[in-house]
Amino acid sequence: GENVEQHPSTLSVQEGDSAVIKCTYSDSASNYFPWYKQELGKRPQLIIDIRSNVGEKKDQRIAVTLNKTAKHFSLHITETQPEDSAVYFCAAMEETSYDKVIFGPGTSLSVIP
Amino acid sequence: DGGITQSPKYLFRKEGQNVTLSCEQNLNHDAMYWYRQDPGQGLRLIYYSQIVNDFQKGDIAEGYSVSREKKESFPLTVTSAQKNPTAFYLCASSYRGGNEQFFGPGTRLTVL
Predict the structure, then answer these.
(1) Using only C-alpha atoms, what is the Rg of chain B?
(2) Strand ranges (E), B8-97
(3) Which chain B positions have a beta carbon within 8 Å of A1's beta carbon?
(4) Which of A79, B16, B63, B103 holds its CA 20 to 30 A away from the CA of B82?
(5) Which has the closest alpha carbon to A101: A92, A110, A109?
(6) pLDDT in tens, A19-41
(7) CB atoms B103 and A99 under 8 Å
(8) How many degrees, rounded to 5, is the angle at CA B64 between CA B58 and CA B66?
């Protein structure tokens, strides 16, 4: 079955710097890759997603890149702000396999003012 | 907030007892999911369901059971066979075919 790895597990950056979180997946049939943000004490919420027919997607300060050949995808946050501090989860899903979604272990991002 | 609810928020159980966690959604989503969240281990999939009266095991289904008798409801039972049930449980729902999952507020289960 699908296995998703995520690095780093913790990340500290200065406010205004960029943050990059990387994930790898094992199942080449996976074709949908969402990213979720979970603030302390709150439920996870989708921040961006990408499908396997697209190499890159941007939404303001957030971007995701996908390399299908290498089976990895990354989240890029530019001009980080203190409110970006949270745990970020990547996930992979094979659409034909009953929509099974497997999450990575998470990255705790701290943005230092 | 997203139209998906879980109850109770906190639950205490004695060893050897079964307990059922509730998950309800009014988003007309076909797919529903149960995840377990432990510190440093992310969201681990317990069970998921795409249609009424059908569900599949996730990666850590042992000691858990579910039912999907209605589209809106996907209750999770933590049985006495689950050896380490103390955790935070999250329910989610989505449209099928690779779409945003909406999460409930979670239930924190503690076994005494």
Answers:
(1) 13
(2) 10-13, 19-25, 31-37, 43-51, 54-57, 64-66, 76-78, 87-94
(3) 59
(4) B103
(5) A92
(6) 999 999 999 889 999 999 999 98
(7) no
(8) 80
